[in-house]
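Support request from a user on the community tier.

User writes: "When I paste my structure tokens into the form, the page sometimes reloads and wipes my input. The last time it worked, I copied everything first. Here is what I submitted, just in case something in the input itself triggers the reload:"
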């Protein structure tokens, strides 16, 4: 599990995809504060620790720092830069995110963007519009994209953990109730066929809804909500690391 790493205090370095190096999240993209300072006191990565890569949309951005905090001393945890958006965007950028670093565990998700309806005329944030909008990725397109993503990720020889898409709440402007379940079923079929582990964050989130929601009708979570999700994510990663 030895690797050569470079990182900053309680943050990720932004490493451009030059000469095959990976492109990772920058300091400005992470939530920082005194509550996290004790978790990131080491100014350099530990070459004796395994490397973990988190891939996902804004939900994963929300739980990243807490996951790092909970895995301190167990792993060096990184995430992709910015928002992983939809599966087509993931396919387009996957190679530069992976780079040449040896990844021991890759925890990944796409879904909420794929199942979102958008209309350029909509005034809602993100131009969401489930009435007159266009679906970002049909279930068929999503399946094709996810199959290709898994094929690429398997080439890393990392232990792969698929994270189920978190729930779509009632009243969400651009997403239809039940689509999260349909897209999760598609992804789970692909993961099971490829021997990919599954972190059922959807069920975990449901146990505490609606109290952990940021607000009614919002797919995002409150700070305590993200900490709650991070417990599950860190736990699944820890279980894998304990077996390696």
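"...and here is what came back when it finally went through:"
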């Amino acid at each position: 599990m030895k690797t050569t790493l470079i990182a900053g205090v309680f943050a990720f370095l932004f490493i451009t995809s030059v000469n095959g190096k990976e492109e990772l999240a920058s300091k400005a993209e992470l939530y920082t504060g005194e509550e996290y300072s004790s978790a990131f006191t080491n100014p350099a990565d530990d070459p004796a620790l395994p490397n973990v890569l988190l891939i996902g949309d804004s939900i994963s951005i929300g739980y990243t720092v807490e996951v790092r905090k909970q895995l301190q001393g167990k792993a060096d945890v990184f995430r992709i830069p910015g928002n992983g958006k939809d599966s087509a965007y993931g396919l387009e950028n996957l190679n530069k995110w992976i780079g040449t670093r040896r990844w021991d565990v890759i925890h990944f998700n796409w879904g909420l963007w794929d199942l979102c309806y958008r209309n350029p005329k909509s005034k809602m944030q993100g131009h969401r519009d489930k009435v007159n909008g266009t679906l970002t990725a049909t279930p068929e397109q999503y399946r094709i994209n996810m199959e290709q993503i898994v094929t690429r990720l398997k080439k890393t020889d990392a232990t792969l953990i698929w994270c189920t898409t978190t729930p779509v709440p009632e009243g969400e402007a651009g997403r239809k109730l039940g689509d999260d379940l349909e897209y999760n079923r598609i992804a789970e079929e692909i993961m099971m066929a490829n021997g990919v582990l599954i972190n059922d964050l959807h069920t975990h989130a449901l146990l505490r809804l609606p109290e952990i929601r940021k607000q009614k009708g919002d797919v995002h979570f409150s700070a305590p909500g993200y900490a709650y999700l991070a417990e599950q994510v860190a736990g699944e990663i820890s279980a894998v690391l304990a077996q390696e």
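Agent notes: The reload is a front-end session timeout and is unrelated to the input. The helical segments are 34-37, 58-70, 87-98, 139-154, 179-194, 201-206, 223-243. The longest strand covers residues 51-55. Escalated to web team.
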